[in-house]
Predict the 3D structure of the following.
Amino acid sequence: MNLKTMLAALQGITAYKDLLTQPVMERALRLVACAAHGDGLGGLEAYTDLFYQLRVEGYPGLGQWLWDALRWSEGPYPRLAEGEGRDPALEQAARLDLSAFAMLAGVDCDRWLAQLGRLLDSDYQGVLTGLPRWQSGVPFSFEELTRAYYREGAGRFARYRAFVWDSGTLIPVAHPDSPSAGQLLGYSQQRAEVERNTRALAEGRQVNNVLLYGESGTGKSATVKHLLTLPGLEELRLIEADKENLGGLPALIRSLDGRRQKFIVFIDDLTFDRDDPTYSILKTILEGGVERRPQNVAVYATSNRRHLVRQTISERAGDEMDRSETIREKTSLADRFGLRVLFHGLDKTEFLALVDMLAQRHGVELPPEELHRQAVAWERLHGAQTPRTALQFILSL
């Protein structure tokens, strides 16, 4: 192998430069550089560091790591191929990069160790002989990657369905908590309204932002997270943001414009104090800023309050003009959600019917009269007549 040619090719990476800053590639580049420049000790350290990092990240070989890194790259060529665009210069750069990566992945560990053996004195030969190997091979090609970008998208939004927005960082959630249809209790009409709006978003239409409000424990959050399980919504992505992290949302939403996926920015349990500084940020995001909201993004929020903002007795007691302005200010935020879906508490008949259904599902064999008597007593002590309370009661038996 011509190490200097390989090093030059890797240093000439242009379309996939984002890979070069990742720990595995940093160690691989150091190994190539040390071996090419005659630094045996540095090469030995880089070799062991590379093996360690591959195992830390769960890969048996450099080729397998490169396949995933290339497949989920956020670089300009994956984004171009995702949208079936054309840029001959960028395509040629990507081809050359793939050739350089293939050259690196195809080198067998025995060849690396033989090269290091030539650079180190005899005291190191026993160490080199006993070093572990990673698998060699080239499980990727330019054509295969390009087809994958076009079929399934590129980058982290192709790889993951759900994310958490935390202090300016988008953290992927590999296994989101997405309840199945069988885990949802009641409120089919409300869920259907939310689903209709979401399917319109998936079809590329301009849609309403959605506020799900009402009793705690009625399944408002579960309704939103359940959307990820529905057929036909495979391109849907859910980004959960806490109220405390709303300051970075405008930049995040701006970055989503033009992506092939459709995004729900989900804010759970949303309630503001009147002087909360994030109140005006959310108002601008929902409607009213200079910059339009991308058509592939909608904001869904849940709240136990219809108007989202806490109102004090002193505010209610102000003079007529001030009181009117206060009311308008408080209702204006909720009004910016074009679709507002009420999750009301169950009445006694609905609550006991739900208890009966859950008892049958969980194999509870109490007589109906006794089951209902205990359910009513539990509800009085533990909460409102909601699906959550009914389930907690059944699980307590």
